[in-house]
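Thread amino acids onto this structure.
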């Protein structure tokens, strides 16, 4: 009787799942339009008063996406000032959308990795995550490409080839 061999398990194939790198912590979107006069005009004195009286402890250990949900023109110092209040509490603050926040978090995580460990190995990038932004996948491929023998997307049973190193 022939023995069933799991060729995937025996191969040098490596799978990277960016979900494994997902940083834990609450994500909070903070809209500063509520601190503007009629949601449109930044009055410095009133704005500073709102900041002074706001409960900043609610952002303890959170990742914060700071934005203005109205068409107001916000001076750069306003976001910087809000950040000075958030810094003692939040893990990370960015100006932008929640997707931008995730993109920045994953950029930092990916940039800290040593991709030389994938040198001359076939790599599968596992996809279909609801929490990992598309930009994280493109950055991952850019970092992997100089090292990996090949890069594929999907699951071991059905991958889409993305890159294969050419022999010299």
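Threaded sequence (168 positions):
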């Amino acid at each position: 009787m022939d023995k069933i061999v799991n060729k995937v398990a025996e191969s040098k194939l490596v799978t990277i799942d960016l979900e494994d790198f997902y940083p834990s912590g609450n994500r909070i979107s903070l809209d500063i339009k509520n601190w503007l006069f009629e949601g449109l005009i930044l009055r410095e004195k009133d704005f500073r008063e709102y900041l002074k009286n706001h409960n900043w402890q609610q952002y303890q250990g959170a990742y914060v996406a700071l934005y203005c949900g109205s068409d107001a023109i916000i001076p750069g110092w306003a976001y910087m000032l809000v950040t000075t209040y958030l810094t003692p509490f939040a893990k990370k603050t960015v100006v932008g959308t929640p997707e931008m926040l995730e993109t920045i978090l994953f950029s930092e995580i990916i940039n800290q990795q040593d991709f030389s460990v994938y040198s001359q190995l076939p790599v599968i990038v596992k996809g279909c995550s609801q929490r990992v932004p598309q930009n994280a996948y493109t950055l991952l491929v850019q970092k992997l490409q100089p090292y990996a023998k090949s890069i594929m997307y999907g699951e071991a049973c059905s991958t889409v080839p993305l890159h294969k190193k050419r022999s010299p």
